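Chapter review: from sequence to fold.
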Amino acid sequence: MARRYGNYGELDTTPQDDGDSRFTGLDMKRSPGIVKQGYVSEAKNVRCQDGVYTSRGGHAGLNWTSTTGSNLVSNGTFETLDAGANVFTNWTGTSFVSAESSDVYAGVYSCKLDNAGTIAQTTSATSTERVYLRFWAKTTDDSKFTQINISTTGGTQAITLTETWTQYNIYNLFTNGIISFTCTGITGAVALLDNVEVYIESSAVGTIYGSENYSDQNGNSKVFVAGASSGHIMGDGGRSDIAYPSGETVSKDVEIVQAFDKVMIFRGVDNHLVWDSINDTSFEILSKPATVDGFLDIPDTNIGVYFKNRLWLVDGKDAVMASDLLSNSNYRVANRFYVNQGSNDEIIALTPYGDDDLIVWKRRSIYVLRNCTGDLSDVELDLVSDEVGLNAKKSVVTIGQVALFLSDQGVFTLELYRENRLLAGEIPFSEPIEPLIDRISWGSSSKASAAFWDGRYYLAVPLDDATENDHVLVYNFTNKAWEGYDTHGDSSFNVKDFLQATASNKVALVAVSNDDFIYLYDYDEECYDRDYAVGGGAVESFVTTRGYPARRMQRNKSFYVSTDINVWGSTITITMIGDGKETAVSLLSSKTFSDTTYLTKGTTAWVNTNTNNDFENDNRDDYKVDVGVITTSTSGFNAWRKRPFRKKFRARGRGAFSQVKVLNNTGYFELRGVALESKQTRRSLIGV
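The token string follows.
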């Protein structure tokens, strides 16, 4: 940061500069005054990418818990329309055009949205229901910039069309009450719509007692959940139900294991269930073969994993049993392995590691079964650690040769070291976020769930007095630093489990919530329904910098604070915080930005319908725009264009260091840098 003046004399007070031009991550443990450059002291609901802290993606409801075609509000199939029809059934709107040979439903009529034509429908939903819109659309000429604007009570989303028929799913989560949908075209471009459907979804599967990643016969990534009376496969295209045997139900948490074409549900002391996805349409009881010498019964368990073409199950507190190759029900006595037998230390989970090893996680220790291949005659048991164990079964994530997990002391790692030894870290991996770890509600911490996604470790945990996972801690492997923590504006949304599945032809991170719905999580900006937009509500996000100290231990008095921020519909508050009991100094309070006002004096305000085709003109105060209002765009526009907001503030205060807190309440923001110029007092507190 440049000095305010070119030269300073002997009696002048020389400004002292400090700041961060790029960011790396979070360090909450150390005093702000000794945090390293590039690290911040607190970060909430943000991500750190390419040295910039940005608003995170939100969570958006998926209509996967409804069977395709169920709970349909309007019949959007147009085959029933004749040549004289001019509106959809139950819709108000524009005229139809006769079908073309490339129509997604050949030989029927499609809706034509030209000259800003509109179709609309109003329906209602309760507070426990979700509303979705699904339709096919295309443009007749993609040389023109063609969009459909979807307006609802939850906001507006713009969809850019191509000349190919494409199905679109609007995954927005709306508030209860009257829901109005409006699809509007743009003047000068022609859009065709077909098979428009609106769904109202209740929690159709009821309570979810278990969930797991599922791969179908075509290799599609989906979600499998265990309900009370059926298993359910969920993904693009809706939900498929696989009934349990007559009289069999699930009423407590279970383990779901997929072994190629078979799915098994392990229910503790109850009968275990198996479904053959090729030959059967429902589950069967996993049969126990007749007991013969040298073989064991299938154990009562809800802990298992499929590894090396065998099913590995926990037997009691201390034993692990391996099935015969390609068998789910045959277990030999010789293939039962005892792990620290007799100790008050139960097995919590099993995790494959590397090519041939199986990690056995106990509550207070960790072991590994090595050489789990062939006839198992060479299996060896090694102690990895008797100082830490596993607290939460679903907190384990393996990334290459590193495993992360939540113990009673925080998040730890297991890594492969010399001589092929697997060792636990001596220092908690979560040390930089120790204040957050100390807040974990340990009475409910066994519910914690984790995932590795997009180069990040996500760990959902309950903090303070919470009994469900109401916070998510995020580690960024690219930056090699903790990134921050997430909260959620929807009190009914807590992460029960993290999974991965394909949504709209894109593999995404999904969350099973305690309200028994499935959500996209941390979705990118193409997903309109960020947390701050759900139901019109806002989720607070902020970054608090490290402490910028006075040099030579002199006390700071005057400050010039510079911030480099990009805004998009933001409401920005900037505060300077001194050390000790110093009063926080407000530098900027709830600053909003106008999407019609230009910063250059005398420039006529932008018309938000874009009638002048000048959306991209420079020097506007903000470029966030309600795309549903835009009626003209022949040259196109970037609906996610951000506006740089660089500001310098003067403030007075005292302290050995000062921090800067940048908070945003609406829209999206990027924090690119902060600089603090401190003007020292004349008298030094120590001799020089």
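Two observations follow directly from the output. Residues 565 and 671 are 5 Å apart (CA to CA). The domain at 15-55+542-680 is CATH 2.60.120 (Jelly Rolls).
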